[in-house]
Input
Amino acid sequence: MGNHSDGAQEVSSVAVSSTEGTRDSFPDPGLPPHSPRLTDISSKKAKSAERGVILLFLVSILGALLFWVAYFGIKIGGDYYDVLNPEPTNQLRLQNLLLGLGIAFSMFGIGIGIVQWARALMPDHEMSESRHAVRTEEDRADAVEIMDTIIDESGIKRRPLLRNTLIGSVILAPLTFVTLLRDLGPADPSVLKYTLWDKGVRLVRDPSGTPIKAADVTLGSAYHVLPESLSSLSHENGYIEEKAKAVVLLMRLDPAEMKISEERKDWHVDGIVAYSKVCTHVGCPIALYEQRTHHLLCPCHQSTFDAADECKVVFGPAGHALPQLPITVDSQGYLVAQSDFHEPVGPGYWERGQHTKEMKGEA
Ligand code: FES
Output
């Protein structure tokens, strides 16, 4: 033990003397010799670099304009684009492509333009500054002087076209992202309050559109269902939007296994229940029905709803149960809605409680 300790001290003392020797043996290398750039020695090259930077800023501005043309100009299902692209999905693809290209050019132009400006046109002399004690007032004055020098040396004052294209691209590029905030929800949130379901509207299979007789729905089966009145809509007058709100899952459970509240005791037909397919988390379509457990699963973030217990949330981030569609049968034995949903479908929004009351006629 004693020997080991002595050995460690010996190694340590050798290391210290080696470090001290190293410090003395290397002189300060200083800055490498300055080599001027082509743009420093040739005004022609400087002018051409300036034109290149201006071009990149113009690309950024044009990218932002392309974004807005695609965003506001392409109407999904609109009249004049039907001539070129009869399929709404093609229009959607075209719009997404142009939106992406617009944002990409806008960001690429401004980013590469600034880098190119700094590399080719901004002053290129090396400077070093020694560290010194903090002197509040003097340092502040020095900082102001340095900023003034940077603005002078950047050439922004004597290159007005470069300055103007820079200002244009810096303003327009971020506005493309601000524009996208419009899509966080409909301009009029009241459109989320109602769907096409109404008293007497038949439930039809998606996509065949055939009505469903209660006798055809066997225990354990499940159907994707739409309101029959949806077929009268075209893409121009809101088919996709109304379909997205009205989609429903229809299942038959054993009434003995169901927990039914007093308010909803007449909302099912011998265990046949209908629930909104729109997840109450962020609106993905609920796609999986687990017959044995009666669980409905959302594939997006795994929210799980119990169809035997009024589709209450049993797992996952969804904040509330799936809205139930009250159903009954008509004189011919076909399943029909008793009314619209009694609360808004899909994710909650700020006035959800108030809207639910209004739909129930309580407000
Ligand atoms: S959208 Fe269904 S769990 Fe997130």
About this structure: The longest helix spans residues 88-120. The two ends are 87 Å apart (CA to CA).
